[in-house]
Amino acid sequence: MSEEMPYVDEDMEPDAELNALTNAIIGAAIEVHRQLGAGLLELLYENALAHEFMLRSIPFIRQVPVSILYKQQVIGETRLDFLVAGKVVVEIKAVEMLAKVHSSQLICYLKVSGYKLGLLINFNVAVLKDGIKRIANTRAKLSAS
């Protein structure tokens, strides 16, 4: 039996509000990268990005727990690096290059959490725009809770 294709549109912007929010997140990430550059551990970028969000009054929650269900049974829990403004999942990486598995991880997080949009940000690049990937969950409800 074949697995259903992921329901992701990497170019889709769900709405103007989410577009503005992702632009604010990316702006904060660019500032972190401008100050720190590439080569640090993921946790250090996460700490710096949290600080930058606070400085910019961007609402966020770190390490958000999400239960994983299998046939209506909770089988464990994962954590989202950031949930920004209750709408955008942000996954931080500090790797040589983003691999398909990193996108798959964010797709899975969007699927299990029900959120519409995620940003995958790899800080271990020369130019941050080359390390950012937007992924939209086109099957998500209008608002996840």
3D architecture notes:
The protein is α+β, with helices and mostly antiparallel strands. It has one domain (8-137): Trna Endonuclease, Chain: A, domain 1, CATH 3.40.1350. Helix content is 34%, strand content 30%. It has three helices and six strands. The chain has helices spanning 16-36, 42-55, 100-113, and strands at residues 8-9, 60-70, 73-84, 88-93, 117-122, 132-137. It has a six-stranded mixed sheet, with helices on both faces. A hairpin with a 2-residue loop joins β2 and β3. It is globular. The termini are far apart. Mean pLDDT is 87; it is low at 1-11.
Q: Secondary-structure map with pairings?
A:
Layout: E1 8-9, H1 16-36, H2 42-55, E2 60-70, E3 73-84, E4 88-93, H3 100-113, E5 117-122, E6 132-137
Parallel strand pairs: 4-5
Antiparallel strand pairs: 1-6, 2-3, 3-4, 5-6
Helix pairs in contact: 1-2
Keywords, separated by commas or semicolons:
single chain; 145 residues; alpha+beta; Trna Endonuclease, Chain: A, domain 1; 6-stranded mixed beta sheet; 6 strands; disordered N terminus
